[in-house]
């Protein structure tokens, strides 16, 4: 995998990838193959909706399985509770931030596969996470956003 970055991920995030992979490979894909085999035996495949849809869905599942396999192979599992310097923002840290207008925001740095911005979980390689890496309470970091630059001050840092 030339050029692909290491996929830093928490133990929980890795377990979620593994669970999705196992469910697709062990449950959904075999059932779909069975439906396709049954539909293929029903004659004309050109107008057979079960067959056509089944083949399309099988390709989608195979693409997803391939993607998950690559992500798991590149994964580097890091337990946030074992970070040596808990006074600074590193992988797994939860940080409370304040902008110039004193609007507060709490974010947790997680693996890119675990990111969910609506829940405050931002990917390790996102612009905000890259800017916050290594920051301590009181540090001000500038983040380049599509709408322009924004400054965030670190108000608190915590780990699970």
TrEMBL record:
Biological process annotations from GO: DNA-templated transcription elongation; regulation of DNA-templated transcription elongation
Gene symbol of the encoding locus: greB
Keywords: DNA-binding, Elongation factor, Protein biosynthesis, Transcription, Transcription regulation
GO MF term set: DNA binding; RNA polymerase binding; translation elongation factor activity
Name by which UniProt lists this protein: Transcription elongation factor GreB
UniProt cross-references to InterPro entries, sorted A to Z: GreA/GreB_C_sf, Tscrpt_elong_fac_GreA/B, Tscrpt_elong_fac_GreA/B_C, Tscrpt_elong_fac_GreA/B_fam, Tscrpt_elong_fac_GreA/B_N, Tscrpt_elong_fac_GreA/B_N_sf, Tscrpt_elong_fac_GreB
Similarity comment: Belongs to the GreA/GreB family. GreB subfamily.
Transcription elongation factor GreA/GreB N-terminal domain ranges (all copies): 8-77
Function as written in the Swiss-Prot or TrEMBL entry: Necessary for efficient RNA polymerase transcription elongation past template-encoded arresting sites. The arresting sites in DNA have the property of trapping a certain fraction of elongating RNA polymerases that pass through, resulting in locked ternary complexes. Cleavage of the nascent transcript by cleavage factors such as GreA or GreB allows the resumption of elongation from the new 3'terminus. GreB releases sequences of up to 9 nucleotides in length.
Tree of life domain: Bacteria
Transcription elongation factor GreA/GreB C-terminal domain: residues covered: 86-159
């Amino acid at each position: 995998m030339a050029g692909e970055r290491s996929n830093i991920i928490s133990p929980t995030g890795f377990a979620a990838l593994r669970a999705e992979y196992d469910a697709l490979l062990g449950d959904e894909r075999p059932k779909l193959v069975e439906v396709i085999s049954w539909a293929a035996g029903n004659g004309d495949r050109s107008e057979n909706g079960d067959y056509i849809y089944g083949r399309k869905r099988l390709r989608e599942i195979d693409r997803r399985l391939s993607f998950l396999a690559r992500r798991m192979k590149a994964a580097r599992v890091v337990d946030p509770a074992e970070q040596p310097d808990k006074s600074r923002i590193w992988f797994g840290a939860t940080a409370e931030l304040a902008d110039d207008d004193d609007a507060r925001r709490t974010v947790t740095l997680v693996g890119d596969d675990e990111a969910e911005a609506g829940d405050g979980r931002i990917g390790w390689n996102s612009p905000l996470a890259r800017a916050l890496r290594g920051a301590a309470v009181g540090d001000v970091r500038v983040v380049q956003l599509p709408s322009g630059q924004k400054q965030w001050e670190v108000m608190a840092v915590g780990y699970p």
